[in-house]
Amino acid sequence: MEPENTASKFRVRSSGFGVRSRGGTHRTPSTERRTLNAEPQSSPSAAPRVIVVIPTYNEAENIRALVAELLSLAVDNLSVLIVDDDSPDGTGKVAEQLREQYGERIQVLHRTARRGLGRAYVAGFQQALAAGADYIVQMDADFSHSPAYIPRFLSQMAAWDVVVGSRYVPGGELDDRWSWWRRLLSWWANAAYSRLILGLQVKDVTAGFKCWRREVLQAIDLSAIHSGGYVFQIEMAYLAEKLGFRVLEMPIYFEDRRIGRSKMSVPVKLEAAWRVWEIRWRYRRLSPLAVAAPGEDGP
Ligand SMILES: Nc1nc2c(ncn2[C@@H]2O[C@H](COP(=O)(O)OP(=O)(O)OP(=O)(O)O)[C@@H](O)[C@H]2O)c(=O)[nH]1
Ligand SMILES: [Mg+2]
Questions:
Q1: pTM of the predicted model, to two decimals?
Q2: Of the ligands numbered here, which is closest to the C-alpha atom of 56?
Q3: Coarse DSSP helix, strand, coil percentages of the chain, rounded to the nearest 5 percent
Q4: What is the pLDDT of residues 41-54, one digit of tens each?
Q5: Helix spans in 111-149 (H)
Q6: Which residue ranges have their beta carbon within 6 Å of ligand 1?
């Protein structure tokens, strides 16, 4: 872990840390609670800097419309970082055209080969932090995650460290077209398997639509994240909870991808299944950060 630059931003409280879902707040009474100063890192007068990180692999047909929707949101100081793994369908070229069209509101990180969603996010988060983002949103490129939720997520960031767009809290929903079998598999992967093994309180463990406060990503040692594929989402959810950050789940309607093909494959699912155990073992000694700034008490 690298708690760099975090000490002065944390306050330790004795009221227990909680993972709140819309259905209520779960607390761990004897554990210290970590809260972060709400002030963004950009200058006090400026709106917080929001960077939306989107990993892409063969999303040429989606990315243009998605970027247009994102940039038309009523959110000041929002920009988009596309992390493309040299997509054969030319997504990288479309991303470059978007950069020319929209200027500095679009950044593009071109990677030379397909190395999985997790690696793309690590590189994207690192670049977003280096660019001074106060809040980092992560989302898929295929419209499963509606940009319309982003202002709602951001409205909660003064009080929470991570907001999760959740399919599994009251009000959250899966696409009507999902078969009962697909629903069952998703429920099993989330509610049963991963949550039980890792003892997580968050209900949508594999959620890929999240908003992070920059200090959370700084507290997590991103360079040590091993997950290549989708298990990245589980690893990050686990680290945020284990470190004692305040996680809010907000319900979303999860729509099936509109255009293009899923990159979910059997090897990716198998990686997730075994890596859940590896995550549990690897972080077994990790405990909530307890870095109190001298002379500070709770808010
Ligand atoms: N850069 C990069 N992006 C990836 C990679 N694999 C997947 N993605 C992107 O990650 C996001 C999620 O991938 P999807 O194929 O939609 O997977 P999913 O949403 O879990 O599965 P579906 O529900 O079937 O769509 C999309 O924006 C993909 O383009 C990868 O190896 N590299
Ligand atoms: Mg998808």
A1: 0.85
A2: 1
A3: 35, 20, 45
A4: 666 668 999 999 99
A5: 117-130
A6: 55-57, 59, 83-85, 114, 116-117, 120, 140-142, 144, 230, 257, 262-264
- Please answer whether residues 222 and 136 qualify as being in contact, where contact means their C-beta atoms are separated by less than 8 angstroms: no
DSSP secondary structure string for all residues of 256-286: PPSSS-----HHHHHHHHHHHHHHHHHTTT-
- Distance from the CA of 260 to the center of ligand 2, in angstroms? 9
Is residue 121 within 8 A of residue 232, CB to CB? The reply is yes
Looking up tokens 């998605």 gives 66
**What total of structural domains would you count in the chain?**
1
Range of the domain at 159: 46-282
- Give tens-digit pLDDT for 1-17: 333 333 223 322 222 23
The atom of ligand 1 lying closest to the CA of 83 is 1
What distance in Å separates the CA atoms of residue 238 and residue 69, rounded to the nearest whole number?
31
φ/ψ region of 35 (left if φ > 0, alpha if ψ in -120 to 50, else beta) reads beta
Q: Is residue 28 part of a domain?
A: no
For residue 123, tell me if it sits in a domain.
yes
Specify the long-range contacts of residues 145-150, CB closer than 8 Å, at least 24 apart.
Answer: 145/208, 145/209, 145/252, 145/254, 146/252, 146/253, 146/255, 147/66, 147/69, 147/70, 147/73, 148/73, 149/209, 149/250, 149/252, 150/50, 150/52, 150/70, 150/73, 150/75, 150/78, 150/211
Q: Which two tokens stand for residue 200?
A: 């997580």
Kindly state whether residue 299 falls inside one of the protein's structural domains.
no
**Residues 1 and 8: beta-carbon distance below 8 Å:** no
Q: Ligand 1: distance of its center to the CA of 88 in Å?
A: 14
CATH number at residue 231: 3.90.550.10
- The residue behind tokens 């007068």 is 45
